[in-house]
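Fill in residues.
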C-alpha cells in the first residue's frame, strides 16, 4: 500500500494536469487488478520466498 501511495504521488507530480493524473492512476489500478485476476485464474501463488 505504501508503494501504491508513492506511485500515486509521483504520477500526480509528473502530470501537471489533474485529468491526466487521474487517468494514469486509474490505469495503474486497472493493470494491478488484471494482473491479480490472471494470477488467481491460473492458480499461481505469490510468496516472498524463492
Amino acid at each position: 500500500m505504501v508503494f501504491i501511495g508513492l506511485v500515486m504521488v509521483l504520477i500526480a507530480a509528473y502530470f501537471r494536469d489533474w485529468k491526466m493524473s487521474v487517468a494514469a492512476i486509474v490505469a495503474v489500478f486497472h493493470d494491478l487488478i488484471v494482473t491479480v485476476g490472471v494470477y488467481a485464474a491460473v492458480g499461481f501463488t505469490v510468496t516472498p520466498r524463492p
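The mean pLDDT is 88.
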